[in-house]
Amino acid sequence: MANAEIRTVVRTVKLTKAFGTNVAVDSLDLEIRTGEILGFLGPNGAGKTTAISMILGLLQPTSGHVELFGKKVDWVQSDARQRIGTLLDGVELYPYLSAKENLEVFRKAFGGIPECRVSEVLEIVGLIPRLNDKVSGFSQGMKQRLGLALGLLPDPDILILDEPANGLDPEGIKDLRDLLKGLARQGKGIFLSSHLLSEVELICDRVVILRKGKVVARGTVEELITDTAKIELAVNHPTEAEEIILAKPEVLSVTRTGNKLSVQYDPSATDITGISGSSNDLDTCRKLAQELNRDLASHGLFVYELTPLRGNLEEVFFDVLEEVK
Predict the structure, then answer these.
(1) pTM of the entire predicted model
(2) Cβ proximity of 294 and 303 under 8 Å
(3) If you classify domain 230-309 with CATH, what class do you get?
């Protein structure tokens, strides 16, 4: 995280877009802040692209509005939007120009960008060795890198990225992760729409999950993962065990499949004794597992499998979508 003061530079207020009777985005409230990476998640057709288009002024909202740098803007292109860099899915580049020549074309079109900035952004995305090569010979991953360089060309405060890891191999994805984290530490705000949930978990500070145009979950990655903290156990008398476990105030739910029980609990519950600190600490999970084992043993029940589990963003994502069906 950057040392600079975190500030909200993009805010959507009840942003809504309807196409006839189909509401693609429904009263969307979100904030993009400097020094943070915000993940924007949802299944296909959730309304992510429509929301991004409204933020960028490419699509007129049906109602609601966008605020850029503290000021409400109308739906048409605003001067403030020039301070937002983008990498949208399907970026169009000039195939028979080199990487450097592509950036020169856009640098001149933008106006006011110093010539040295072309080399700077090529260095940032790791394309200096290929700066004079024609884009027609680039892999999809290299085109993504060049698209990101294009987004960085005006040195924007905010980067809005739609599936930036498309075409990247595992090494390229790691390089992208490190790059985006570095840009956030420098004080830039990153708005990342992606289907790679494992990457979002590794890179993002906060997450917004959209379904059918509505926000169905939001929070820090740690907060959302904490909500899926679970313990899985197998016991000789699962019906009796379920009753005993459900009596504990920190237990939220128990799901039974045969002799196996999946116990979801509140990691911040004060009844889990002897643990302090992060509510997502795996030690909390282990502590409760020990308590459950003792309680069941005291009732003559034998636990022959016991696994403390830390949730992950993929579980959160699918659990949330299942809940709101």
Answers:
(1) 0.78
(2) no
(3) alpha beta
